[in-house]
Amino acid sequence: MSGFLEGMRCSECVDWGEKRNTIASIAAGVLFFTGWWIIIDAAVIYPSMEEFNHSYHACGVIATIAFLMINAVSNGQVRGDSYSEGCLGQTEKPIVYPGIAVFFQNAFIFFGGLVFKFGRTEDLWQ
């Protein structure tokens, strides 16, 4: 979304730089609210467990916790700009493979699910 507002035709008329954080925060809040509004609406319309299994709320709860965890870390900390030396000193050679392994595990599971869902024909189980 970093280049979203710069591509607008009237970007010379309005200084989006100062309003970018406000617009992004409002857009994220509206999307977050809309997601929860839709699932709460479905739970109210279909209250019985036969029509709508309420264990499906776990996906939204986990996504909300992930949303909070992602926003608890600043971009400067992710890039490594905010620390020059911590209480344990600087690390010379960080261990990165476990993080890469977790990323690739989730990426392969995600893409495997996509291939399984959309790559099969409908008559596979017949």
Question: What report would you give on this structure?
Answer:
The chain is mainly α. Helix content is 57%, strand content 0%. The protein is built from 4 helices and no strands. The chain has helices at residues 16-45, 57-71, 75-79, 97-118. The protein is extended. Its main location: membrane. It is a multi-pass membrane protein. It is found in: Membrane.
List the topology elements.
Elements: H1 16-45, H2 57-71, H3 75-79, H4 97-118
Short description:
Pfam families: UPF0220. The chain has helices at 16-45, 57-71, 75-79, 97-118. The protein is mainly α and 126 residues long.
Sum up the structure in keywords.
single chain; 126 residues; mainly alpha; 4 helices; 57% helix; transmembrane helix
- Shape verdict: extended
Runs with pLDDT <50, length 5+?
A: none
Strand coverage percent: under 5%
Percent of residues in helical segments?
Answer: 55-70%
Number of DSSP-assigned strands: 0
Order of helices and strands: HHHH
Average residue-wise pLDDT: 75
Q: How would you characterize the largest beta sheet?
A: none
What Rg is obtained from the alpha carbons, in whole angstroms?
22 Å
What separation lies between the terminal Cα atoms? 44 Å
